[in-house]
Amino acid sequence: MGRLGSTGRRVLLRMKSGERRYAATSRELDWLCRFRMGAAMDLKGVRAFCSVAEGGGFSRAAAAQGVAQSVLSRQVSALEQELGGRLFHRTGRGVKPTEFGEALLPRARALLAEADQLAAEARGEGASPVGSVDLGIVPGWAQPLVSVLTARVLADYPRLRLRVHEAYSGQIEAWIATGRVEVAVFNRYRRGAVRGAEQVSRCDMMLVGPKGHPALKRRDVPFRSLDGVALCGPVRPNGLTTVMSEVAARHDVALNFVLEGSSSAILREAVLRCGLCTVFPRPFVEREMAGPGFAASRIVKPSLEQATWLAVGTQRPATLAARTVARLVREILKGR
After folding, report:
1. What domains are defined for the chain?
2. Per-residue pLDDT at 130
3. Would you say the pTM of this structure is higher than 0.70?
């Protein structure tokens, strides 16, 4: 089975008929998957594939669907035979999608969402979105957004289901580009438009540290105050640390990152327990670090700003469910 490439790159697929290989762009591949999985396959196989991938194993997926494990196994095997490739690797703890399976999974989920929406429209329920939506979101916005969004969905769109994936901006942007998520919320730290996305928030960046830290005596602190300060920050490569390093080089400031963490919770704990400083956006500081153990100052001369962007995937036409989630996210973020 050939590797599946990114948009515009030629990829190779071994078709079911013998060993003939087919060259296609990812857009052609998307059409091929839709045709073969929609027209030639029973949707039960596609649904079984998605359920096993989400559950991480056949037994968990069977329990969730209320069917025998052997039934799911036969459905997935039939789909693998029809598509001409293995969809899962068997591991000691269950199953994991192959590279081929990972590439098809977003398209399979979209196909099911479209099928569910079509069924709803046939029942006269077309105004109400149906199906699952994959949302990618950066850690700084996850806590307020996900809870408010879930409450809105439960109240107004009971047939919608959310799958939320948290990661830093670079990973989120990669996911939306490849179709792994349908709606994305990510940050940028440079001015300028982002193609295919809309800005929903802009805020100051703050230097945050333990109460009484000598670098945090004033309400505003110049960037040069970071010189030599023991810092913690997100794991690199990361957009914020990249911009900070560029500014530091221009102003002859030595940044001293002694800890890199993969979540905001790790960095917050490092500030509270280890006496380190970090840089967070103002809304996060006001929400999560307003307690008596913290101090914060706005970074100026030059200032650092965070712009938050909302994007809907373009790998395939957005479903009504995805458009609805994007609209709700927009309303929530712009209202903060």
Report:
1. 1-127 (1.10.10.10), 131-336 (3.40.190.290)
2. 85
3. no
